[in-house]
Design brief:
Thrombin, subunit H, 3% helix
């Protein structure tokens, strides 16, 4: 699988992705772009998700609930669902959303054998 960066320049940069970079297979049959700009590649081993911003690749297979077999078609519909087709069936992945973590609240801190915190926060329920 390859990516062209700066296509309007006289010498665009070409970036190739291989199993050495994390792809599950060198056989890429189809591509789809999700709502967050991630690229989903249907391969002989399932679906690989490339985050172009970081270069990180995640892999999805039948172990994750994906239909088994070569993924031969992929698309993102109007509601953001991603659809993957193999000779054995169809799978749907719900819309990708930017993940947000819940806020972190520290009830206490301990450093150098000293405790700093609120006794109220540490009181066990009655």
């Amino acid at each position: 699988m390859g990516r062209i960066d700066r296509p309007g320049e006289a010498q665009p940069a070409v970036r190739a992705y291989t199993p050495a970079d994390g792809l599950s297979s060198s056989e890429v049959w189809c591509l789809a772009e999700g709502e967050q700009g991630r690229i989903y590649a249907g391969t002989a081993q399932g679906v690989d998700r490339l985050d172009p911003g970081t270069g990180l690749i995640a892999h999805y297979s039948s172990a994750d609930g994906l239909v088994s077999g070569d993924i031969r078609a992929a698309l993102c519909d109007r509601s953001g669902d991603l659809w993957f087709v193999s000779p054995r069936g169809v799978s749907r992945l719900g819309p990708e959303r930017a993940s947000t973590l819940p806020p972190l609240r520290a009830a206490s801190v301990s450093a150098a054998d000293r405790f700093y915190g609120s006794a109220e926060a540490l009181r066990s329920p009655a």
